[in-house]
Structure formats: C-alpha cells, structure tokens
Design brief:
It contains 15 helices and seven strands. It has helices at residues 2-49, 185-196, 202-211, 218-231, 233-244, 296-301, 332-346, 358-378, 383-408, 417-427, 429-432, 446-462, 468-486, 491-501, 508-513; strands spanning 152-154, 168-170, 248-256, 270-278, 283-290, 307-310, 326-329.
Length: 531
C-alpha cells in the first residue's frame, strides 16, 4: 500500500513538473510576443509623432557601439571620427542674397527738407552722394482680357460676283488646342501649374479667381486639364520612347483613390506609377495611372527594353528578374529604413541614452557605402572612373557586410523588426550589389521617389481623383511638369510655350523638339535662371 502511494506521488510530481514547464514555456512565448508588440507600438508612435527625418543624433556621450564584436567583423569606423584635412577655402559672406538684376526697378528718391539743406554758415549744402537699398514689392495677380479683332474684307465694286471664292475674306485666328476656349495658353498654363506644381486644388483656385472679379468654375478647369492631356498623347508617346532609350529606368508607385472606377468601390486603392529614364543629361519622367499595383503595369512599360531597372523591394517587381536583357537593381535607401525603424523602436534606456545594437552596425556599413559615393561625386568621377572606384572600394565593404549579415541572421528573432530588416537585406542582396558593377545607377531609387513626391504632396490637398479619366489626365500633366523641372526649366513658362507651339506640331521631330529635354530656359519667356 505504501509503495502504491509513493508511485502515485511520483506520478503526480511528474505531471506537475510538466504543467509548470508548459506554463513557463507559454509565459516565455507571451513575453516575446509582448516585446514584439511594444517594438511595433514604438515604431508606429515614432511615425506618427516623431521627427520626419532619417538622421540619427548620436549625441556627445556615445557609448560603445556593440557589446561584443567578433574578430572577423571589425567595427566600421564612424565618418565623424575620421581625421579629415580641410583645404583652404573662401568663406561666403553672410546676409541676404542679392536681388536678381533681371527684375524691373522703380526708383524712389528720398530727399531732406529744403530747410535742412541750408547750412548754419549761410551756404547751401551740396549733394555729395547717395546710399541705395533695395526692397522687394509685388503686384497682386491681375487678370486681363485679350480681344481678338479679326478684320474682314470685301470688294464693294463687284460685291464678290466676279469671284468663285467666299464673298468676304476674314483673318484667321491662331490655331488653339481647345477651340473656342475662353482661356489663353497663359491662363491655362497658370491654372495647371497652380495645381500640379504648387498643389493648389481647382476649388481653391476658383475662390482666388472670384476675389479678382472673374468666375472660372472648377468644372471648367477640370475640362481644360483633360483636353490638354488628350492633346499631348503623341507627345507623351515620344517621351516614353526617350525614356526607354536610356541605360537606366527608375520605377516607383504610390496609392491613389479614384472615384467611379468600374467594378471597384470608391474606398479601394488605385495606383500612380512613375518611370524615370533617358540619359543623365536629358532625363524624362512619365506618370501612368493604373487601377491596381500588379506588376503588369511595369511589365507592359518595359516590353522590349534593354538596360538596368531600379526599384524597391516590392514583390510585384519580381518578374523583372526573369526578363532578358534587363538587370534588376535594388534600393539601399529601403534597406537603411528597415534598420532605422529598429533604432527608433529601441527607444532609450533609463538613463536617457539611446540604446545601441546590431541595427547600428548595419547602418554604419550602409553609411560607409554612401561615404564612398559622396567622395566619388566630390571628385567628379563618372562612367568608367566611377566604376573603377566602386570596384576598388565598394565591393570590399559589401563583402564584409554580407558576411556579417549571414553570421547574425540566425541570432535574431525573425518576427522582430530587426529580423525583418535582416531578411529584407538578404532577400534583396543580389539586386543590391548590382550598382558596384555598373556606373549607370546610384545606390538607391531616390530619383524616382523625389519625382513622385510632388504628386504625393498634391494628393494630401485634393485627396482623390473624381474619375479614371481625371486620374489619367493628372498623370499626363505631371509627366510634363516633372520632366521640365528635371531639365531645369521653369514649369509655368514651359507649359505656356508648349500650349502655344503644340498646335503646329505635325511630325515626330516636331513633337520631340517640344520635349523639355530639347529646350532651354532662354528659349522660353520668363526668368533666365530658376535655381
């Protein structure tokens, strides 16, 4: 009987130990999940309330970067710790920049009273010089009416009976893109630039026009935009051809809400795609509206293209890896952001100092890659010289970074932000290292992101497009304005020039001559220098 009780007690103790072990294991899992959630909350809070910058302030009291460092992976030196010899230079004078000489001047002479011109000795004071200072003034927007007076002629002798043609001859109006339109090319260009360059929605412009005594409805302005976009279809085809002729195409996309789309709710997402290409001297930018984010949009654009295509890590671009004659390049800026999210989510320790860890070491490797690019740019290295620099300096850093990632990836929880950053970098590695073997690309896809940013800023103001046709029209007009800006043309004066000259274009060469890549500011009216 005693033996049975002892066996029963041992069994119960064994079962109790199993229960305790199970509970401890569950607790460990719960604590891990809580830590992951805390990390995600800190990351979201930083995105909502933190500084909108990717720079990290290290402060003056910097603690050691790593708790432990393997001998095989030496610490990447901080650029700020390097000893740099600064050559002699001229310091720029502080103060306001001079007002451009091209602006008109109105002289206002300020004189003293006649009584003050009389000296106490009885003589008259003489003017010995002057002091000149300049201020900027502005004349508020002024709208004017262009009266087109067409002279008519007729023969009073025969009253046209001797002629087989029209009895009355009348001067022809210049051909217009929008027949019988109340707006001149200058007014239409002004309206389009206000929305697509300055992000001013049509309904706000409507109120502005009312304040100066003219009623131009937002519906009228929308109609102008759509008709101008339709008139530029051939020009945009020529622009696409120019983009595809270059050695590099940058691609990016951003969501857009479009109302009244067939078979879609008004709350669903559509997308604006951007393609930047052409040559370094003559870049072209083309926006395309599509109802989805599927890679079909990019695949259709790249059909027949040969060269380098640079994108972010979105899975929809995976088809590029299987395309012949195309080399797929990734984006280091996106890799950097993944590790930067880890740093921001880590928060600070109880003493108020920022926590350091593996993410900081990854950022230092990336910072060293960008330091090489910056130094090469300062030296003016291009083409084969830049390629040689990357082969000699960039590749060793990339190889060392890869070894470090491979060694650390299994030490990091895959569901954590750091684990996701490691996975992103390793999954994209074959695309990320492409730039070391070619001089056409930069390490990141920022050129496409910078080109699409004006659209994103505008979207915050006008929120959505009313129809698919309106979204397509917006894509066409953004393409022209952003290409003009990329080629250092003032966008309003380019659009005005285009609207004046486009009706006369007949051949492909005529349209090509109207692209911003083949114009300079001196050919347009307006300021000679917009920088």
């Amino acid at each position: 009987m005693v033996m049975i009780c002892e066996a029963q007690i041992e069994t119960e103790n064994f079962d109790l130990k199993k229960i305790i072990d199970s509970l401890l294991k569950k607790e460990e899992g719960y604590l891990f999940e809580i830590e992951i959630m805390k990390e995600q909350i800190r990351c979201l809070q930083d995105r909502l309330f933190g500084r909108k910058t990717e720079k990290i302030s290290l402060g003056f009291q910097q603690i050691p970067l790593f708790e432990t460092v393997e001998d095989n992976f030496p610490i990447v030196e901080q650029p700020e710790d390097d000893e740099v010899e600064i050559p002699g230079h001229k310091r720029k004078k502080r103060g306001r920049k001079p007002i451009p000489d091209s602006l008109p001047r109105i002289e206002v002479i300020h004189d003293i009273d006649e009584a003050e011109k009389q000296c106490e000795c009885g003589c008259q004071k003489k003017c010995i010089g002057q002091e000149v200072s300049e201020q900027l003034d502005i004349i508020p927007a002024k709208i004017q009416v262009i009266r087109n007076i067409r002279l008519k002629y007729a023969c009073k002798n025969c009253e046209g009976v001797e002629s087989n043609g029209p009895t009355v001859a009348i001067a022809l109006m210049p051909e217009q893109l929008i027949p019988k339109c109340i707006g001149t090319p200058g007014l239409i260009a002004f309206v389009l630039a206000a929305k697509f360059v300055d992000a001013l929605p049509f309904y706000r412009q409507e109120k502005q026009f009312l304040r100066i005594g003219v009623k131009i409805s937002r519906a009228t302005m929308c109609s102008w935009a759509q008709k101008i976009a339709q008139s530029c279809e051939i020009l945009l085809m020529v622009l696409k051809k120019e983009i595809l002729s270059g050695p590099l195409i940058n691609i990016d996309e951003t969501p857009l809400q479009v109302l009244n789309e067939p078979e879609k709710t008004n709350q669903s997402k559509s997308y604006m795609w951007i393609f930047r290409g052409g040559t370094r001297e003559r870049p072209g930018i083309l926006f395309e509206y599509h109802s989805s984010r599927a890679g079909d949009a990019a695949a259709a654009f790249l059909k027949g293209y040969k060269g380098v295509v640079q994108t972010d890590g979105y899975a929809g671009y995976g088809f590029i890896n299987g395309m012949q004659d195309i080399l797929h390049m990734g984006c280091w800026a996106h890799v950097r952001r993944k590790f930067l999210d880890v740093v921001k989510a880590a928060g600070k320790s109880k003493d108020g100092k920022r926590k350091f860890g593996n993410a900081d070491q990854a950022l230092k490797y990336i910072r060293k890659l960008y330091k090489i690019e910056k130094d090469a740019k300062n030296l003016g290295l291009v083409d084969n010289d830049l390629l040689r620099e990357r082969q000699e300096k960039t590749k060793p850093v990339l190889n060392e970074f890869k070894r470090w990632l491979d060694a650390k990836v299994n030490e990091v929880p895959p569901k954590s932000l750091l684990g996701k950053a490691f996975a992103y970098a390793l999954n994209q590695w074959s695309q990320l290292i492409v730039y070391a073997d070619t001089y056409h690309v930069t390490p990141d896809n920022n050129m496409a992101e910078n080109a699409i940013r004006p659209f994103v800023i505008g979207r915050k103001n006008w929120l959505f497009s009313g129809t698919p046709d309106g979204a397509a029209a917006s894509a066409a007009i953004y393409s022209l304005f952003e290409t003009a800006k990329a080629n250092n043309l003032e966008p309003y004066w380019y659009m005005r020039y285009l609207l004046e000259k486009l009706p006369d274009a007949m051949t492909e060469d005529d349209y090509k001559a109207l692209l911003p890549q083949y114009l300079n500011q001196s050919q347009l009216a307006g300021p000679a220098n917009i920088s």
